[in-house]
């Protein structure tokens, strides 16, 4: 039914380095409706000690505790707001594994019975209320049950509950395929559409959009196919769903390590090393470095020994070789499905409902941008290669004239430090979690006119912080906005990246009252060390700001139907709002407000702020060429008509597009979870949406990014309509004109240029 989550990931608004992403969920019927889940890159490290948990039915369930409140708190709500009770209770999180499976099966049975009733209608009895509205309300009820249940697999400390949640999602996906292929229900929709037209009934714009989208669902599902082909399509879809879920499960549960001695880790900051598990191997002590971003990325950036970086990178790239044959399988299934449905390629099928419209448009966009970026990237590589040669000469290390993947992050950092005298570790000292998180929340609240009120309710873990969200001047229940949950610190078996799940959408209920949204942000912020409190790199600050943009998209949308709520927009637009908001993290007055040195309590000075802003576009060519490599691989495997050696393709494409040598890296495509979990033929969208993000920021916010009036305009024109109208219409309404690429080109290259962007 609705997409379950939205993802960011490797690229966000015009920035130099890859950050996180929000996970766009797959939702109840991800098996047959295009969704946008993905894996971002995780924020950072290990878990603070947990509070004792109370046991219930043999499992651990929790109430919201003060674990996070001890690190940060928000300003107190006024007495009137604090006394208000939300008109909708927060959901319970006390399910057992048995509950998860039973409730899921019950929800499926109830929705199937609804479809049976709709299918049994006589053609003359099919109308908007009896078919489209009935199904919409049924979807709402169904998703309200299954979405939270499928969420457990990402956050629950109980393996039994995670496994049950994963099993429930398999059941839901299979039912999604079955539901999407019901010809009898589709015929009822067709009859209702005809009767609406014949009767001259006037629908609202959103009601008409619901009709159009439900009819399109059936067409894209292949319901016009002959019986035999339709039956084959159903089986292929179920197999595809299960294969993709297996790929993602392997990705989420990967727990490998690579081990080094302290000498081999020379250069890696001590506070990072203190987070590595230490053990004895033979006659020496070694440190186990996990492949999670907070552990492995500092090694890539700081380890002085190139052999350490090479070994780590080769192990990191090949950590999910188990997924290589699974990828081959789901790509083959997609080719078969596209052929049955009559599309030239899977990419054409996917992009039909995106802003770009077809695979040809994607290829033109990527080719045009690569042509512009290549000379910039070649210059970046030349600069970093010279820096590598200088260091190797000084240290007496062999130099073969090549620039490798394991060199990029290391020399990118060194170049910034040397050219801008910008020390990433020093900057981090100005961003304690206890300051940054409440500062960002305050900025959003002031900009968008809302108020977070912390509440103590039941959650899935004691570290989770729970908020009721209200209009800033709330006087009664009608000013309630929704709920927000923040699960910000890493722990074992938790989703290892950053993501926002819109667990409950907002919509109008059958009785005319409102059902309110709930969004949950899952992240992995830095842990405290014995010497320092929990600190955030500037990259992490940008990521958190981005993710909160998705949170507010989910909270502040207000549509009649859940299907169009919040981030339920075209996949190549969904990142644009949050990408736009990243710009705030490069504005001097915002940086000053968000920063406070953990010892001196002083904010960033103007010199450091200037260096941070200048660092944004350093080596921008190599950065974006890396993104184009991912996008081109994604597009090629979804437009090729025949299978290929995808390990060979992955490594060859990366060298040719990214301009860096790979070496013996193995099956890196096994970790490309995006194309298994909803971003298939969609990775281009990260860069494509930057065009809109840059235009929105430059046109409306650049002059005064903290102006509540501009924030209200953004809330009304972009957030509120969600997917209830075409994205281009929301953009034109917000900008006052057609969008263009001028701001994007200016930001990236410093000049305007005619292009296909």
SS element count, helices: 26
Poorly predicted parts: 1-61, 64-70, 751-756
Helix content class = 40-55%
State Rg: 25 Å
Average pLDDT rating: 89
Distance between the termini: 32 Å
What is the compact description of this entry?
With 757 residues, this protein is α+β, with helices and mostly antiparallel strands. It has 26 helices and 13 strands.
Any key phrases for this structure?
three-stranded antiparallel beta sheet, single chain, 757 residues, disordered N terminus, disordered C terminus, five-stranded mixed beta sheet, alpha+beta
Describe this structure in words.
The two termini are 32 Å apart. The protein has 26 helices and 13 strands. Helix 13 (359-395) packs across helix 21 (620-637) and helix 24 (708-719) packs antiparallel against helix 25. It is globular. It is of the alpha+beta class and 757 residues long. The longest helix has 37 residues, at 359-395. The chain is 51% helix and 8% strand. The strands form four sheets. Strands 6-8-9-13-10 form a five-stranded mixed β-sheet, sandwiched between helices. A three-stranded antiparallel β-sheet has the order 1-2-7, with no helix packed on it.
Write the layout of secondary structure elements.
Elements: E1 54-56, E2 59-63, H1 79-83, H2 97-119, H3 128-155, H4 159-180, H5 183-199, H6 205-221, H7 227-253, E3 257-260, H8 270-273, E4 277-281, E5 284-290, H9 293-302, H10 306-317, H11 324-341, H12 346-351, H13 359-395, H14 405-420, H15 424-428, H16 433-448, E6 450-455, E7 458-459, E8 465-471, E9 480-487, E10 499-504, E11 507-508, E12 514-515, E13 518-522, H17 538-556, H18 576-581, H19 588-594, H20 606-615, H21 620-637, H22 646-658, H23 684-701, H24 708-719, H25 727-735, H26 742-749
Parallel strand pairs: 9-13
Antiparallel strand pairs: 1-2, 2-7, 3-5, 4-5, 6-8, 8-9, 10-13, 11-12
Helix pairs in contact: 2-3, 2-4, 2-5, 3-4, 3-5, 4-7, 5-6, 7-11, 9-14, 13-14, 13-21, 16-17, 21-22, 21-23, 23-26, 24-25
